[in-house]
Amino acid sequence: MTPARSGLVFTIIIVISIGVSFFVSLLAWRGDSLQLSLFQDIALSEGIVLLPAMLMATVCGAEVGEIFRFKKIKISTCMLIILFMICMQPLISLVNAISLLFSDNMAIKIAEDLITQDTSFFSVAVAIAVIGPIAEELAFRGVIYAGLRRSGRLLGAILLQALLFGLMHLNINQMSYAFVLGIAWGILNEVTGSLWPGLIGHFMINIGGAISGFVLVRYFPDALEMEYSTNDLLMSIMFDAMLTVLFTGLAILLLLKIAANEPGGKFRLIRIFRGHDLKVITKDGKEELIKRPPVFSVPVVIGIIIAVIEMIGILVMQMQLS
User: Fold this and answer.
1) What's the rounded Cα separation, in Å, for the pair 321 and 73?
2) CA distance 309 to 303
3) Which residues in the chain land under pLDDT 50?
């Protein structure tokens, strides 16, 4: 994998996602409907994310260990990751609240579309909290990040994969907090050398969303119809901001503890911010840097532009309907 191939994977995901969305909208406009069960809907959306990534990795002959970094981590590290994600929650809530000033709450809208009176909680939990995290972590912190980190610019690779992960959702609301989560999971991935932290964190976020969505849709449907004023959101932002100052500081301390708890974790954490150059010894005994590809590439820029245009279009439509 290379940064350019990672960018191509992202662009393919975006193009297919927009194409499928347009096809479904066209069917609805014609009076037809695509009747999918919860699992079929999730399988389709996550398949669009995972399959292009897996195909690209296969075609490129990428090393399995480079992509599927399922390195064992300590049980104590898992506990620290759970605490880390709990401490990240105020920041996620803050970013989400800020995004709601400009966008609808897409997570709730998606929950309304997926969860019906006939849907069991087990089905919701498996579809949203298991299938989604596995597919998205393998695609973004697996295949795409593996290519981007070949640039040697680890911080840039982490930030870019987080941006792509956010843009993949194709709406401002989910993009905002997905970007923050993508950074956190990217750093944990690099520090531990494993995909497990991202899977644990992703599961926690999604199971929380599945529980709240299921409870709201099934037992408090009237709450979904409530509209919150700008003043309500601003009050929520102020409260979340105060909590964020405290709990994000604790999250940083927990990150340092995670790095210290895993063998080589401290070195890998420092390397994120210092860069990662590769050197070879030439025949005359001199050190020479290996030229690395840039983290940004033409395919990834094209994909970002397409995603941003689509998101702007969706935002304009939301504004016209409101």
Assistant:
1) 48
2) 10
3) 280
Distance CA 120, CA 108 (A): 17
Look at residues 50, 57, 63 and name the one whose alpha carbon lies nearest to residue 13.
50
What is the distance between the alpha carbons of residues 141 and 201, in angstroms, rounded to a whole number? 12
Report, in angstroms and rounded to the nearest whole number, the Rg of the chain calculated over CA atoms: 21
Task: Say which residues have a Cβ less than 8 Å from residue 160's Cβ, sequence separation at least 6.
Answer: 148, 295, 296, 300
Cβ contact 113:213 at 8 Å: no
Q: Provide the residue type at 268 as one letter.
A: R
d(CA 71, CA 262): 11
Sequence-ordered list of residues with C-beta below 8 angstroms from that of 149, at least 6 positions apart, any chain = 157, 190, 276
HSE-up of residue 77 (Cα within 13 Å, Cβ side):
23
CB 111 within 8 A of CB 213: yes
Q: Read off the tokens for 233.
A: 């959101």
**84, 254 Cβ separation under 8 angstroms:** yes
* Residue of 187, 205, 191, 2 whose CA lies nearest to 85: 205
Mind listing the pLDDT tens digit for each residue in 131-162? 999 999 999 999 999 999 988 899 999 999 99
* CA gap 33, 218 in Å, rounded: 23
pTM for this model (two decimals): 0.90
Q: How far is CA 143 from the centre of its chain?
A: 13
Specify the pLDDT at position 15. Answer: 96
Which tokens sit at 184? Answer: 């956190």
The torsion region of residue 33 among left (phi > 0), alpha (psi -120 to 50) and beta comes to beta
Q: Which two tokens stand for residue 270?
A: 């420092």
